[in-house]
Amino acid sequence: MSEERPAPDPFEEEQARATDADAWATACAEDLAAEQARRRAEHGSPPGSAAEELKKLVDTVADKLSGLQSPLLGGLAGPAAQQVVRQVVQQAKAAVEPVIDRNPDVFDHLAAAGSELLAAYRSAVQAQERRWTARTADPAEGGPDRRDRGEGTGPGERIDLD
Prior knowledge:
Structural class: mainly alpha
């Protein structure tokens, strides 16, 4: 007795393959999200753009300046001086933040330019250090010694008059 199997439905096969592909993509996305969460927990959040970092810096400096007690003025003008400092800080923030919001790419370019300048400086310093360390300490190894090693300790050279 032979059992007849129904012919496989091409639609069902395609759907099963699509489900497998989706499961693979879902598993990869979950693994990636878990790895990103682990790295954030281990290293902290990655730095944002230069504009975002500048905003954070401005906010932090403003908070520190606003909370600063004025030891110079003492108890005479303490609360009034603090109010003036807070007002000046708020005005500075109000002036800086729109510039940052309007031109975020400028700060990214400035950060990149600063990195390039630092790399160029580092390269120049390393080249100079190589030249300094390449010089030999013993002049006898480096070529003819023209300094007079006889009388005196000055930097004079021996001149042959014959």
